[in-house]
Design brief:
The chain is mainly α and 210 residues long. The chain folds into two domains: 37 residues; 148 residues, no CATH class. Helix 3 crosses helix 9, helix 5 packs across helix 10 and helix 9 packs across helix 10.
Length: 210
């Protein structure tokens, strides 16, 4: 005579052991604690940045552009900084004014238009006639106000505006860099000696965002 064995119900077969429940509950608690701690550290860091930005020692124009939208800048989910975008935002790059200041050019004039006495990041962004076509495309996306605060505000506001600024900077700055390298070769100004190896890498690291 065969013995009848009671088949476990589906509920009992699927029941999670108590120790697994406790482990899962503990894991979720640890994850929440880690998330809370990270948020605390982030807020403390942002507060420290705010205090530093109240007393900037350099990059005043950049600070004034970013400080009003700092929370949006830090919390955005689109866009990343490139080497050439950083040059335009900071003014530290292939611009006559900056190159003259670090003894890489004999004067601050713009080599791309004949009517400018000083080549700056803002001149490149908003004025230089050599970049009219690139600027037209940029204005179609971000608007006609190309002051640095307005451009930064639009960059933070949408991925499309951010990408438009990146496109402008990559196109224009790559051409300015190529022209500057050619001048290094063809002119006798001693400050234009080409920097290679470790010095070039150090300069690039200085401009590149973290």
């Amino acid at each position: 005579m065969a013995y009848l064995v009671k088949k476990p119900s589906d509920n009992s077969a699927q029941q999670t052991p108590l120790w697994e429940k406790e482990r899962a509950r503990g894991s979720r608690l640890v994850q929440r604690q880690i998330a809370l701690r990270r948020e605390e550290l982030r807020l403390a860091l942002v507060a420290e940045w705010r205090q530093r930005l109240l007393r900037p020692t350099a990059g005043l124009a950049t600070v004034e552009a970013i400080r009003p939208v700092l929370d949006d800048w830090l919390g955005r989910r689109h866009g990343s900084l490139s080497f050439r975008v950083t040059q335009v935002l900071s003014g530290h790059g292939c611009f006559g004014k900056y190159l003259c200041r670090i003894d890489r050019e004999p004067d601050a004039r713009c080599h791309h238009c004949v009517h400018c006495g000083e080549d700056t990041a803002q001149h490149t962004l908003a004025e230089c006639v050599a970049w009219e076509e690139q600027r037209r495309v940029l204005i179609n996306e971000v608007g006609s106000d190309l002051s640095l605060p307005a451009v930064v505000r639009r960059m933070v506001g949408s991925a499309e505006s951010w990408d438009a600024v990146v496109s402008f900077c990559e196109d224009v700055m790559s051409q300015k860099e190529t022209a500057e390298r050619e001048r290094e070769i063809s002119t006798p100004f001693p400050g234009r000696r080409r920097r290679t190896g470790r010095r070039t890498r150090a300069d690039n690291a200085l401009f590149r965002p973290p």
